[in-house]
User: Fold this.
Amino acid sequence: MIQKLKYMNDIVDDSATKYNYIVNLASEVAKNYGFKYINTPIIEMTSLFKRSVGESSDIVNKEMYNFTDKGDRDICMRPEGTAGVVRHFVESKKDRQQPSKFKYFYFGKMYRYERGQKGRYREFNQFGCESFGEPSVLEDFMIIEMISTIFDKLNIKYALEINSIGCDSCMPVYKDNLVKFLEPKKDALCQDCQRRLLQNPMRVLDCKNSSCQEQIANAPKITNNLCESCDSDFKQLVELLDNSGIEYNINTNLVRGLDYYNKTAFEFVSKEIGSQGAIAGGGRYDKLVEFLDGKSTPAVGFAMGIERLMMLIDIPKESRDGYYLGALDANALSKILEASKKIRINSKAYVEYGAKNLKGHLKNADRFNAKYCAVIGEEELQNGTIWVKNLEDKSQDVIDFNEFIKSIG
Ligand code: AMP
Assistant:
């Protein structure tokens, strides 16, 4: 028997219901905030991710699902959604339009060759939004508010962590200070962090290794080293959150795994799903459009992990819906098919092909969670009628077949 690949999942039955519920709900909220749907290819040139996610990131270093295609191109299954959306934004010259304000939401599969565990898969789904052209920190706040609305509607409890990682003018100065601080402690850092110290020192701050955590305990804090513009934006974000009643913690070690972020960084975490508790993360990436050869355009976005949300929600039991249609006598089958065709134009019908007794049909109708059980037997066939039971209020009636067909049309 051929099995599915390790750390990949079939989304089916209850998990399919949850997946659709989350995607539909999040899409509706995103539309209310002015985002429009975008669906970009799952595979892109590997160079797109090397340039955008960054050569020093774990994603590009260790986790890419890349291969050479028949045309000898280096192709990669997307590890995240932002790069493709930005590629589209630049390729379609939206960066050149005036005003260049565009908001997109997407959902779909992502691929990372990770060490799998509960909540961490090699194929997983994200829902995300990207907002282009808005430099105001109000947009960062709106996005955080939107995510909190989605989680409230899904009945998911979360802790929100925020930080500012500075900009071109203050981040390099801070990085130098951090490297100076960490350099003497280098030998106590894990191997990954020794590499990060050279390539991306701020990533040392969010290393989960306990020895690295000890070393950074007294490290300089980025929020004490922000330039005037970053500092005032961060203070405004804090004020907006305070006024809105969305609870948060400032976590100065929150730096995000990707190289193109600046200023606001945030993460939503759940305490209820074990060690892989991050359920959404995002922030500002004002440099990325330019990195990908576009005209400099401020941008902010986020992605949430759908599988992790699926672990956190209970779907309300669906109410009874549609018709169950069955024949008591094989001769009645053609009438059943006539009715089902008509019903299915506008609503749901379950059709039983085999003739059964009434008890069998009622049991089936219940199993399908149908609202009505409608059957035709010999007697109904002769009289041109159909027997219909409402399984919610238990009322039942024998109706003229043609009237029935008219009423459902
Ligand atoms: P990132 O793109 O790394 O910022 O991740 C955004 C969100 O995607 C995280 O907060 C997680 O909820 C989810 N996520 C990231 N990696 C995985 C994975 N390997 N398996 C399942 N969910 C993931």
Q: What stands out?
A: Residues 137 and 233 are 6 Å apart (CA to CA). Residues 14-32 form the longest helix (19 residues). The two ends are 47 Å apart (CA to CA).
